[in-house]
Design a protein that fits this description.
The chain has a 7-stranded mixed β-sheet with strand order 1-7-6-5-4-2-3, sandwiched between helices. Strands 8-9-11-10 form a 4-stranded antiparallel β-sheet. Strand 8 and strand 9 form a beta hairpin. It is an alpha/beta fold. The protein is globular.
Length: 474
């Protein structure tokens, strides 16, 4: 006979309900004040990075709290921590490929978190919004989308596309594995490491990745791509996909997309374009010719949390036809039945629990409009040209490539060990706090790398960035 459980103790009964622990009006007022202060701090560069209060550092080392705490004090600590962290929303953050932290994204993110819709299963109107946002991005860059999904980032988007490509080239591999069949994926030697990770995850192994050398403009060499494909065909190796990069992370180079599309058509190979960084520039009239051929790709990745300005994470993968995503991911489980002929979102994606990431981008398009975003992207590309021209005019600086998008790699010239000097200079700049950039390596040379992505950055601040670099270089 089962013994009934003990009744709750008096102490347990006295514990407040979680919903009683927050005064909604009070915390919303505190949050509104903090957001207003934060957004104002992004309007202009600040003279240096703030330091954390020693008392806050002590609180961040405390053990797990057992009792309820003060929501206002907790929000204040969050604000202090984030304010002393590196944020890509600041106008002179130019280190890595970040976002702008658009206010629209904050608003949409708050509502998305409040409702917590899950797109793994049929979710109603949120699916219509997500599909509309996919179509808007496709229209923005000129891509004939027929299917796609929002994901957690470029890594997941590239993995999703290459999983579909693998199932297309090796039907049934999701069930049987590669089963000893030799297969390969092709990319330039400057492609993002997410491509290598994806090749490993889909079971081909990193040795199946053919890194095609680049030319003097840092673009994939078409002649060597043709040779690699022909050699693998002769050896019985199945080509799974060619990954073209539209905006490499290191220098912003764009692979010759039309020529790669021609080669893929000749060999009947899936063409994927990794446009996580540079893809949105295809929607800018002055830059669009550089992306000719993007519309011929079987799949395309774009990170909206980069050059479209919204917060992480908001990436998307688009396909030019329906079917491959279902072939790669669809399943039938007893805990997730299909209502009639309606598929669940998880049948077309790698992820299960999936928030409405598209809402941030949807609201950004609605509030700012596509033409405004095109002007913003063009402006940041102009900043790169202006910085490169300013550096080239100074005899003690060397620009290491012609900027194609918004990245500039350069180094300061001195007598002695240039690699050591430029690494020290990069560390000095980051320690100084007025601007934020990072070191990189181009052709084995340590250099400084600037990437303009932030729509808040103006021409005057580009001049300030150059002045700070010169000052610290001296």
């Amino acid at each position: 006979m089962n013994t009934p459980p003990d009744p709750p103790s008096a102490e347990t009964r006295r514990q407040p309900h979680p919903l009683e622990l927050i005064d909604r009006e009070q915390v919303l007022q505190l949050l509104t004040e903090q957001l207003s202060s934060t957004w104002a701090s992004f309007d202009r560069p600040r003279p240096q990075e703030p330091e954390l209060d020693p008392a806050l550092i002590e609180r961040l080392a405390e053990s797990l709290p057992a009792a309820p705490g003060d929501p206002g004090a907790s929000l204040a600590d969050i604000a202090s921590v984030l304010d002393a962290s590196v944020s890509p929303s600041r106008p002179l953050y130019a280190a890595y490929i970040g976002s702008t932290g658009l206010e629209a994204g904050v608003l949409a993110g708050a509502l998305a978190n409040a409702y917590d819709v899950n797109l793994a299963a049929a979710a109603g109107a949120a699916e219509l919004l997500e599909n509309q946002t996919l179509r808007w991005v496709a229209e923005f860059v000129g891509y004939p989308v027929k299917d796609g999904a929002f994901t957690s980032g470029g890594m997941t988007s590239n993995l999703t596309a290459l999983t579909a490509a693998r199932e297309h080239a090796l039907p049934g591999a999701r069930y049987t594995g590669v089963s000893g069949r030799a297969a390969a994926v092709y990319c330039s030697d400057e492609s993002h490491h997410s491509v290598a990770r994806a090749v490993e995850v889909i079971g081909l192994g990193s040795q199946a990745l053919r890194r095609i050398p680049t030319d003097d403009r840092r673009k994939m060499r078409i002649d060597l791509l043709r040779e690699a494909l022909a050699a693998d065909r002769r050896a019985g190796v199945v080509p799974v996909a060619v990954v073209a990069t539209s905006g490499t992370t290191l220098t912003g180079a764009i692979d010759p997309l039309n020529e790669i599309a021609d080669v893929c058509a000749e060999h009947d190979v899936w063409m994927h374009v990794d446009g996580a960084y540079g893809g949105p520039a295809a929607g800018v009239p002055s830059l669009a010719p550089r992306f000719s051929g993007i519309e011929r790709a079987d799949s395309l990745t774009i990170d909206a949390h980069k050059w479209l300005g919204v917060q992480k994470s908001c990436s998307l993968v688009m396909l030019s036809r329906q079917g491959p995503l279902e072939s790669a991911f669809a399943h039938d489980e007893r805990y997730m039945l299909h209502a009639g002929v309606a598929a669940n979102g998880v049948d077309r994606t790698l992820e299960y629990s999936r928030p409405v990431r598209s809402l941030k981008l949807w609201l950004a398009f609605r509030i700012y409009g596509a033409d405004t975003m095109r002007r913003w992207i063009a402006m940041t590309a102009d900043h790169a040209q202006a910085l490169a021209s300013g550096l080239a005019a100074k005899p003690d600086f060397e620009v290491l490539h012609e900027p194609e998008l918004s990245v500039v790699c350069f180094r300061h010239l001195v007598d002695g060990d240039l690699d050591e000097h430029n690494l020290r200079l990069a560390n000095a700049i980051m320690s100084d706090g007025r601007i934020y950039l990072a070191p990189a390596q181009v052709d084995g040379m340590t250099c400084l790398r600037v990437c303009f992505m932030n729509f808040r950055t103006d021409a005057e601040q580009v001049g300030e960035l150059l002045r700070v670099i010169e000052e610290l270089a001296r």
